[in-house]
Amino acid sequence: MKYRTCLLFSVLLITLLLKPSPALSEEARPPNPPPKAESLIISCGATEPETGEDGQSWQPDDKYLTSTSGGEPKAETAAFQDPALGSAVPFMSARIFESRGGYEFAVPTDTRVMIRFYFYASTYGTLDAADSYFALTVNDYQLLNNFSAAIASEALTQAYIMKEFSLLPSPSGVLNVVFTPSAGYKGAFAFVNGVEVIPMPDIFDDSPPLVGIGDQTVDLTTYGLQSMYRLNVGGEVIPPANDSAGLRRTWYNDFPYLFGGADGRSVYKKDVKYPTVEVPEPVAPRSVYTTSRSMSEDPMVNQKFNLTWVFQVDANFTYMVRLHFCDGEMTRANQRAFHIYLNNQTAQETADVIAWTGGKGIPIYKDYALYQNDKSGGNLWLALHPNTASHPEFVDAILNGVEVFKLNSVSKRSFAAPNPELSEMMSRVEDAREESSFETEGGGQVVGAIAGGATGLAAVVVVSAVVLHKKRRRTAGKSSRRSGSSNNWLPLYGNSHTSSKSTGSRRSTNSSHLSTVAQGLCRHFSLQEIKHATRNFDEAKVIGVGGFGKVYKGVIDGTMEVAIKRSNPQSEQGVNEFETEIEMLSKLRHKHLVSLIGFCDEDDEMALVYDFMANGTLREHLYKGNKPPLPWKQRLEICIGSARGLHYLHTGAKYTIIHRDVKTTNILLDGKWVAKVSDFGLSKTGPDLNAQAHVSTVVKGSFGYLDPEYFRRQQLTEKSDVYSFGVVLFEVLCARPALNPSLSKEQVSLADWALQCQRKGNLEDIIDPLLKGDINPECLKKFAETAEKCLADAGVHRPSMGDVLWNLEFALQLQENPKSAAAAAAAIGQKGGEIGGGNGGGRRRGLSTVDEEVSVLTSDDTDDSEIFSQIVNPKGR
Ligand SMILES: *[C@@H]1O[C@H](CO)[C@@H](O)[C@H](O)[C@H]1NC(C)=O
Ligand SMILES: *[C@@H]1O[C@H](CO)[C@@H](O)[C@H](O)[C@H]1NC(C)=O
Ligand SMILES: *[C@@H]1O[C@H](CO)[C@@H](O)[C@H](O)[C@H]1NC(C)=O
Ligand SMILES: *[C@@H]1O[C@H](CO)[C@@H](O)[C@H](O)[C@H]1NC(C)=O
Ligand SMILES: *[C@@H]1O[C@H](CO)[C@@H](O)[C@H](O)[C@H]1NC(C)=O
């Protein structure tokens, strides 16, 4: 290790000597990539090596356990695998410490060590993570104290908690990791699912200025750091396997942390000189520097706003904020100069990336330190504003990446902070929401939800049903107070209802109908490009026709297959629906929502460009498609996927979004049979539509799927979508259309007919004959019950989409593994997840809400990441 570090250093030195200013010179050769650190990647409680989702191998932990008098600590398996975990490794096995115990790791004596811990709050044997409180120390660092993974998971709506630290070199060559169950809790224990120990080159070796306090600096070489946030600004999520120098960090997308409606534009520039001496590989992967976010293109607008990110942090600690820059657009100094503010204080009077680096596409990072007192409500504000004092050519600002680290307290070398307070977080979110009324630009959406989430968004997921159930009992009082009101405490995406005044800028060539925000988020196609893609709207390329016009199959960028929806220029309604769709979809990214790649709006032609769905609509695979029948399990998975998409619409975005036209032709299937909800032309947003709220509107939608209550009262709630989804469920089960006028009167409407059969107990008779024998009876029972509840006459008696999702997932378990699913249900004292009848659908049952949204961004789904890169790579700007 030492030898390699030396080698690296000499390489750097030589490079330096040969080229006094290599970063400035065009032909500067990047230094050799640093050696990969020898890392320990450990799955605690595992008995043999296991392979994680990304192919990473995780070793068992037993040989690192410190010997204790009480014998080897227990290894246990989690009772339930949260569907949001993505991978069983390292989460399903755990090491349990019922008394003080831990690990010893041999590490190099001369390098910092990155150490990461994973905690999945579940039930382990007889132990419930809700009873786990513990302290964690490593050598003389106090990393955690009185830590509850269950509370943190619930408060942050994460399936698991990850804590990451970079510790100073340990002269003894040993990391002594000690878990101590909290005294004062009867039966308290400690547990851990995974540990990663990764020696790292010293990338924290400068002395950043302490913002707001004269010219004091903070010497980073004397501190351990805890990673709080790490964002690839304007870019996609970079998963551990794609991090540089084998450090296995995750870089999240910054969008959820942006404050206010002003989100500027993201820019992708491929040509980046990387790595350099100033920015060697361990600092950040290349992708961080290829994507950036800058302000709008209107200088007047930019004068009036700050590009702002807000981070929830623990008070009474010093933080180091590392900003990554790389300007791929400017070429000279004083073209783009801006102020950097941290907590409303000037951190940098004039930031001019080109002046710093000497050229286009050269990366650089800057560190700033600041003390976070407890007056600022635990929010750390980062804001950029153009500095016009020196009359730069453009009124703009730019940022490529941001990391926020907590420094250990000096007195105790501690990072420990209290457990997050759920109720407090909730009230903060509520307050923020009240401030931002529906019509205004509304800000404050980046709040408690993502608190503490160094670990952040990827993990922002579902709390396991098991854990949640327990917690629901524990916090029953609190949650009932919350129910029905808060849809907004998850990481939120800007205002889905945008007003063009929010940033105001318009590119003259662009649509006059669309908000800048929407424009900024989507790729803009010229009519020429659209014509090229569709061979001048070749009739042979038509794959669908609707009231709005035709849908063509096309090809862009040489090979990418897309679906292009062209509006009928005669139809005014068409134009409105197009706009709705762009506004909605450009803001929503979810694995189970169809992805909008971009749009064209030129010469009275409007066209929307979507990801191409190779397998077409769900309907054509059920009947009328002459396609091979789908097996039951696959149908169930498609239902679950669509339920997730709808659940996300209802609860995951800033405002409840009601789809209004849920039907089997609006559920599309991609090449991998992933269900995607499409067609948002009729969607409505409302300011937090809870059980009481409603949007009154003209009745729209499709017959056969229409909520009778909506029809009677013309009041729209998200329960109307639940009703339509109930029809979809029966359609999937019975493989017949929602309306079939050729049948006898009582059978015309599938909803009526299926309900009648279900109530009489002869549903079996109308099930798709091709499914006979394929459905486990328990699964069928659960599925039919769920569909029936969806069709309840009154919206308040229908379950929320979250409940529907829970029940469908349970039905899938019953199908796949009836015994263990029933046992798991018994273990948590729940009868297979009874459907909670309409508490307004407010309190989600910890079911997948943001997980897919995140999984889109985490790009474990390559399709989605491709699209994302399309979006951040708007050609022809
Ligand atoms: C991660 O790396 C793999 C292999 O190099 C690549 O295929 C994938 O696109 C990368 N993903 C991201 C998000 O960069
Ligand atoms: C921060 O320190 C102040 C003063 O010592 C104390 O009153 C406050 O409770 C602390 N806040 C937190 C969150 O620890
Ligand atoms: C910074 O200013 C914003 C409003 O511009 C305010 O809400 C916030 O509390 C301020 N933050 C601090 C740390 O003073
Ligand atoms: C930008 O933020 C700084 C620091 O908080 C503040 O002084 C300034 O007024 C803000 N500017 C705008 C236009 O909001
Ligand atoms: C431990 O954490 C719990 C939950 O946050 C809190 O109620 C309790 O007061 C804490 N105990 C100590 C000793 O700090």
From TrEMBL:
TM spans (from-to): 446-468
Record localization: Cell membrane
UniProt region (Disordered), positions on chain: 23-75, 473-512, 832-859
Source taxon at top rank: Eukaryota
Pfam families noted in UniProt: Malectin_like, PK_Tyr_Ser-Thr
CDD domains linked to this entry: STKc_IRAK
Record organism: Linum trigynum
Name this polypeptide is given: non-specific serine/threonine protein kinase
Biased composition (Polar residues): 54-70
Reactions that this protein is recorded to catalyse: L-seryl-[protein] + ATP = O-phospho-L-seryl-[protein] + ADP + H(+); L-threonyl-[protein] + ATP = O-phospho-L-threonyl-[protein] + ADP + H(+)
Signal peptide start-end: 1-25
